[in-house]
């Protein structure tokens, strides 16, 4: 595995996830019969989707650009052997998700408690009170770039304390995180994830968009229980 090939596969994975998000979003906004399965009754006007597209597209561009450069320079930390040890991979995926979500909880909560940041930055994401999938990308570019810090800390921590930062673990983390973001912004009621303890189900983040308060974590709900910011229906 070379750095170039690693970056190419990673960017392809990211683009495929967002293509899936584009398809789900188009179906959601154009087919009213599907919207009845959403948690909130609010109907989405398809024109909103097209108004959101320029910023969504810009953030995808930033995502590809930063990921390409960042991962190229982080590549020496990775184990190039492509060994797949299930225990190692599962543990590393969990560590990256855990560190990422812990950082995100406090970043997100700060963006609500600091009224200046809320008004100037985070309010853009909250234009969506009943979001569709691709609106996870409808955020201020500053907020979007800050969001990279959590996974960066997770990857660096594993890379520096072990000599086996696993490429499969990173790709699986990336897929889980991106598909989960699409899912929790889709607005549809969750079927499976609500039965997994402390896993951030769709309703958890949808309530946050509806009420503009509480439920600051996304991947896990643990932090909201622990710090008493869990909102009820
Ligand atoms: Zn928020
Ligand atoms: Zn959101």
Overall body shape: globular
Structural class: mainly alpha
Widest beta sheet: strand line-up? 1-2
Count of helical stretches: 10
Features:
two-stranded parallel sheet, binds zinc ion, 10 helices, 2 strands, globular, 233 residues, mainly alpha
List the helices and strands and how they pair.
Blueprint lengths: L2 H28 L1 H4 L10 H29 L3 E2 L6 H28 L1 H6 L20 H6 L2 H13 L3 E2 H19 L16 H10 L10 H5 L7
Parallel strand pairs: 1-2
Bound molecules: zinc ion (2 copies).
Plain-language structure description:
This protein has helices spanning 3-30, 32-35, 46-74, 86-113, 115-120, 141-146, 149-161, 167-185, 202-211, 222-226, and strands spanning 78-79, 165-166. Helices cover 64% and strands 2% of the residues. The radius of gyration is 18 Å and the shape is globular. α1 runs parallel beside α8 (167-185) and α4 (86-113) crosses α8. The mean pLDDT is 90. The chain has one domain (3-226). The protein is built from ten helices and two strands; from the N terminus they run αααβααααβααα. The structure holds zinc ion (ZN) (2 copies). Residues 108, 112, 122, 126, 208 line the site of one zinc ion.
């Amino acid at each position: 595995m070379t750095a170039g090939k690693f970056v190419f596969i990673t960017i392809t994975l990211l683009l495929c996830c967002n293509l899936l998000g584009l398809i789900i979003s188009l179906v959601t906004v154009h087919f009213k019969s599907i919207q009845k399965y959403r948690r909130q009754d609010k109907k989405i006007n398809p024109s909103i989707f097209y108004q959101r597209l320029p910023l969504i597209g810009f953030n995808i561009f930033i995502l590809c650009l930063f990921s390409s450069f960042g991962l190229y320079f982080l590549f020496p930390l990775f184990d190039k052997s492509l060994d797949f040890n299930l225990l190692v991979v599962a543990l590393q995926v969990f560590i990256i998700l855990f560190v990422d979500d812990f950082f995100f909880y406090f970043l997100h909560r700060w963006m609500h408690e600091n009224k200046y940041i809320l008004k100037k930055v985070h309010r853009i994401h909250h234009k969506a009170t009943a979001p569709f999938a691709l609106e996870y990308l409808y955020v201020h570019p500053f907020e979007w770039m800050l969001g990279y810090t959590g996974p960066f800390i997770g990857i660096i921590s594993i890379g520096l304390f072990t000599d086996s930062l696993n490429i499969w673990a990173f790709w699986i983390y990336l897929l889980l995180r991106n598909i989960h973001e699409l899912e929790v912004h889709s607005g549809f009621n969750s079927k499976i994830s609500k039965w997994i303890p402390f896993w951030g189900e769709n309703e958890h983040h949808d309530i946050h968009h509806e009420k503009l308060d509480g439920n600051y974590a996304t991947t896990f709900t643990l932090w909201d229980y622990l710090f008493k910011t869990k909102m009820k229906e």
